[in-house]
Amino acid sequence: MISSLVRTRTRAVALSAVPVVALLVTAAFAPLPFVVAQPGTTADVLGEHNGEPVISIEGAPVRKTSGELRMTTILATGPSTDIGVGDLVDSWFRTDRTVLPKEAVYPSGKSDQQIEKINRKSMEESQNDAAKAALGYLGEDPAKVKVSLELEDIGGPSAGLLFSLGIVDKLDGDGAGGDLTGGRTVAGTGTISPDGEVGPVGGVSLKTQAAKRDGATVFLVPEDECSDAVAERPDGLRLVPVATLKGAVDALRALAKGERVPAC
């Protein structure tokens, strides 16, 4: 009687396990609402991109610069790319990968073409705001000084701060004819408003890795994202928090003079 009961329970457990196994197998191959991101490319806004100057200025004297101001990006799987459990598990155990909810990276309900169009428009608006912020900071008349920014194959608003700094460096430098970079390779990220406010962007821990890979020794971080940047800070990369364009310029001028600056 006991033996028979044990056998019956064993069969019950084995049978009840079948749907669970099937569910796990299905989940392993079913697409999940996430994207996997990794460090992307960087571009020197003081230099050229695809053979064209990133920043062109008319109506005011432009100074020759040294050093680099590198905007940074992340590279994420596409909105229509299927991500499975295996991809997520692999990414969770790597410091050069991050798993993000798909809606945090891409607008929901949009096609790949629509998202590309949105990203291009966002970049154009960011460039316009960057020019307004830089010219406003310098006291230049936007009706007389014309700024053109070319970085067509990179979308989104996160290069705004670096664009503004590049314009300031080309027009004014440190205010005394010197480079804002102090000859260094400086990288960073952050949106910019027309009045010079710096905003958060996301993916900072991946962007610091891209910056270090491409030779940066200083990284400008939106103030609200310092904790994210510190969590995965590459060795030898100095993190400088910024909240405004003026604050970023002041920090770079201080660094160039060997003075103390805030740190994350």
CATH fold descriptor? Ribosomal Protein S5, domain 2
CATH architecture, by name, is: 2-Layer Sandwich
Helix content: 40-55%
Number of DSSP strands? Answer: 12
Tell me, rounded to a whole number, the average pLDDT: 84
Regions with pLDDT < 50 over 5+ consecutive residues?
Answer: 1-30
Principal-axes geometry comes out as globular
- Helix-strand topology string: HEEEEEHEHHEHEEEHEHEH
Report how far the terminal alpha carbons are from each other. 70 Å
Radius of gyration, whole Å: 24 Å
Biggest beta sheet summary: 6 strands, mixed
* Biggest β-sheet: strands ordered side by side in the sheet: 6-1-5-8-11-12
| Number of helices in the DSSP assignment | 8
CATH classification class: Alpha Beta
The domain tally reads 1
Tell me the fraction of residues in β-strands, as a range: 15-25%
Class inferred from helices and paired strands: alpha/beta
What topology emerges from the helices and strands here?
Elements: H1 2-29, E1 34-44, E2 48-49, E3 52-53, E4 55-58, E5 68-76, H2 85-92, E6 98-101, H3 102-105, H4 112-138, E7 146-149, H5 160-171, E8 185-188, E9 191-192, E10 198-199, H6 204-213, E11 218-222, H7 226-231, E12 238-242, H8 245-256
Parallel strand pairs: 5-8, 8-11, 11-12
Antiparallel strand pairs: 1-5, 1-6, 2-3, 4-7, 9-10
Helix pairs in contact: 4-5
